[in-house]
Design a protein that fits this description.
With about 160 residues, the protein is α+β, with helices and mostly antiparallel strands. About 25% of the residues lie in helices and about 20% in strands. The protein has helices at about 55-70, 105-110, 130-140, 145-150, and strands at about 15-25, 30-35, 85-90, 90-95, 120-125. The longest helix is centred in the middle third of the chain and has 16 residues, at about 55-70.
């Protein structure tokens, strides 16, 4: 299930989940694809606690590439694109990223996961970083992604 940007004024239920930054159809901008534990606008649980994972979301990423770019990335590893995880430990919300998430998506992440009221901390976690072998396999199928990554400022 993909949840797209929610309005700040309605997103009042922070939620955990995962995201990928993927190329927009125009191949010049990035958009987020996300899987959230619950709907930030209603608080309704969408999936069981702890079940939002990149494996589930990558199925949608594969379909997105097939539909929008006519590219099959099914055999490529799940760490071929910028990704991250939103989690809550005690009272602190964290946005875990691999230092390769496009910088301008910071507000999109906060919007999509309803994090405006909780002041999330952006934190590097190596496990969220892209893997060279996965990236190289993606670049063969979709060379425009390499060009986009080379010209994109990232979260530091």
């Amino acid at each position: 299930m993909i949840i797209r940007s929610f309005s700040k004024k309605f997103a009042s239920y922070p939620t955990a989940g995962v995201y990928y930054a993927v190329p927009a159809k125009n191949q010049t901008n990035w958009i987020l694809m996300s899987l959230a534990q619950r709907d930030p606008t209603t608080g309704k649980h969408l999936i069981s606690e702890g079940e939002a994972c990149h494996h589930q979301l990558f199925i949608d990423v594969i379909q997105y590439f097939k539909t929008n770019f006519n590219i099959d990335i099914e055999g490529i590893g799940k760490r071929c694109l910028p990704r991250g995880r939103i989690e809550q430990k005690q009272d602190q919300w964290k946005i875990l990223h691999g230092n390769d998430t496009p910088f301008f998506t910071k507000n999109q992440i906060i919007d999509e996961f309803g994090l405006h009221s909780v002041n999330p901390k952006f934190e590097y976690w190596e496990f969220q970083s892209m893997l060279d072998r996965d990236q190289e396999r993606l670049f063969i199928q979709a060379p425009f992604v390499k060009e986009m990554l080379e010209t994109t400022e990232t979260i530091l």
